């Protein structure tokens, strides 16, 4: 993304033109950035060539998943819908892992029928249910057990998953019990230990701690795990100030771990693959003046991009055309929804805007569209992919009639 002759562009395509042609609000993705992210991810861990299972929850667009699949990635899914989507995109079942604390019998049934690589179980009850269904089907099912390593990921509390007070995984004591349970079952084959301590992690130290716990746990169980699934969580930089995750240090820690416990590493990245490929293009409907600030009322709202309302997240916000005049008042960028949390950001010294101007929010490729809803009966935005000089609608804008 850069300004060329004062116009904001992605891969040389002006976002202003996208807005004109496809209307707003619209999600727009860069294929070039996607390719770069996947290649970088692979390069960071190339010495042990992990199985990379893209976390479908971060972006559920079928056509985008098809592109991701072409780079050889598999999928991490957390529902029957996501599993169906990954398969529809052509992903090999042998590269799909199923996570989540509440898989229903129906979902387990489906996953077994589709012969996916692993069902990563998160409780004793779930393992018993997998065992029961596998027995009826007379099948042997490959599973993983998710360990809760009680490690602080040092990220937002809302997206932390690896501490003992979180609902995810099982503690070490239960883990040992479950390993024994699996050994006694004819229908379960325990192949994997999985962990995932949280999302938007920018410090490598929590990962090192997590690996230490995994190391100790495996040593104590004496079980040989074919796979170690380290989850995802690699953070990205939403502003230019925050520090970057040190992949090299994480890589070193994993290599050290693998010397002791030879196994195939699985990753489940979402944000690091698609976060910075996405932009939300919106139009200023009105500018409403107030004593202290001006409200810039956009046609995008919290239903289109939930992250600010849900986590206080801040997305870089840019005008589609650069101008020199600066507003004296603070701009508060809001949507039309009837909630005070329908607010994206407040900015000082933003360039002067007028109604119908185009405003772009950056880094919304992960958990942008996938968290969107129809709140206030607002149709969901269109999604566009820029690939080379080609601009393609990869999901049509919803119509009001779709919602009636
Ligand atoms: N694996 C598991 C088991 C997960 O729960 C998640 C994310 C991932 C992988 C992918 O994590 P990532 O690499 O994307 O950090 N909606 C929040 C993020 C929630 C993450 C949920 N789990 C946000 O917008 O920041």
Q: Count helical runs.
A: 12
Largest sheet: 9 strands, mixed
**Low-confidence stretches at least 5 residues in length (pLDDT < 50)?**
none
- What amount of the residues lies in strands? 15-25%
Reported CATH architecture of the largest domain? Alpha-Beta Barrel
CATH class of the largest domain: Alpha Beta
Overall shape: it is elongated
Q: State the end-to-end CA separation.
A: 37 Å
Average predicted confidence as pLDDT:
97
CATH fold call of the largest domain: TIM Barrel
Q: What small ligands are held by the chains?
A: ligand LLP
- CATH homology group of the largest domain: Alanine racemase
Rg value: 23 Å
Structural class computed from helices and strand pairing: alpha/beta
- Please estimate the helix content: 25-40%
Number of domains: 2
Helices and strands in order:
Elements: E1 2-4, E2 7-10, E3 13-14, H1 15-22, E4 26-30, H2 31-44, E5 51-55, H3 62-69, E6 74-77, H4 80-88, E7 96-98, H5 105-113, E8 118-121, H6 124-137, E9 141-146, H7 172-184, E10 188-194, H8 205-221, E11 227-229, H9 247-260, E12 264-267, H10 271-274, E13 278-289, E14 293-298, H11 307-311, E15 317-319, E16 330-334, E17 343-347, E18 358-362, E19 382-387, E20 390-395, H12 400-403
Parallel strand pairs: 4-19, 5-6, 5-12, 6-7, 7-8, 8-9, 9-10, 10-11, 11-12, 14-16
Antiparallel strand pairs: 1-2, 2-3, 4-13, 13-14, 13-18, 15-18, 16-17, 19-20
Helix pairs in contact: 5-6, 8-9
Ligand LLP binds next to α10 and α11.
């Amino acid at each position: 993304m850069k300004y060329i002759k004062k116009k904001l562009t992605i891969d040389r395509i002006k976002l202003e033109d996208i807005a004109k042609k496809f209307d707003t609000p619209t999600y727009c993705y860069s294929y070039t950035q996607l390719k770069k992210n996947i290649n970088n991810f692979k390069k960071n861990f190339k010495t042990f060539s992990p199985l990379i299972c893209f976390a479908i929850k971060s972006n559920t667009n079928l056509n985008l998943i098809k592109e991701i699949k072409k780079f050889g990635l598999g999928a991490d899914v957390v529902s029957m819908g996501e599993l169906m989507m990954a398969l529809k995109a052509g992903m090999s079942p042998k590269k799909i892992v199923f996570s989540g604390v509440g898989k229903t019998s129906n979902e387990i049934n489906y996953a077994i029928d589709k012969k996916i690589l692993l069902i990563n179980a998160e409780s004793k009850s779930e393992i018993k249910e997998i065992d029961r269904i596998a027995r009826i089907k007379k099948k042997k099912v490959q599973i993983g057990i998710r360990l809760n390593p009680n490690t602080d990921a040092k990220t937002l509390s809302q997206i932390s998953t690896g501490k003992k007070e979180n609902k995810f995984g099982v503690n070490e004591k239960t883990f040992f019990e479950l390993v024994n349970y699996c050994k006694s079952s004819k229908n379960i084959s325990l192949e994997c230990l999985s962990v995932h301590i949280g999302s938007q992690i920018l410090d490598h130290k929590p990962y090192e701690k997590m690996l230490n716990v995994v190391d100790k746990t495996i040593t104590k169980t004496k079980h040989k795990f074919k796979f170690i699934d380290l989850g995802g969580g690699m953070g990205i930089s939403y502003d230019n100030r925050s520090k970057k995750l040190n992949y090299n240090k994480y890589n070193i820690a994993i290599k050290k771990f693998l010397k002791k416990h030879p196994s195939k590493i699985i990753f489940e990245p979402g944000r690091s693959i698609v976060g910075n490929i996405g932009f939300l293009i919106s139009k200023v409907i009105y500018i409403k003046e107030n004593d202290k600030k001006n409200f810039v009322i956009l046609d995008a709202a919290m239903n289109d991009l939930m992250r600010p309302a849900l986590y206080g997240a801040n997305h870089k916000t840019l005008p589609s055309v650069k101008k020199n005049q600066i507003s004296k008042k603070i701009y508060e960028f809001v949507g039309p929804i009837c909630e005070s949390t329908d607010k994206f950001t407040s900015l000082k010294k933003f360039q002067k805007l007028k109604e119908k101007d185009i405003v772009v929010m950056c880094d919304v490729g992960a958990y942008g569209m996938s968290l969107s809803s129809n709140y206030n009966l607002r149709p969901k935005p269109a999604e566009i992919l820029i690939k080379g000089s080609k601009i393609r609608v990869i999901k049509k804008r919803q119509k009001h009639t779709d919602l009636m």
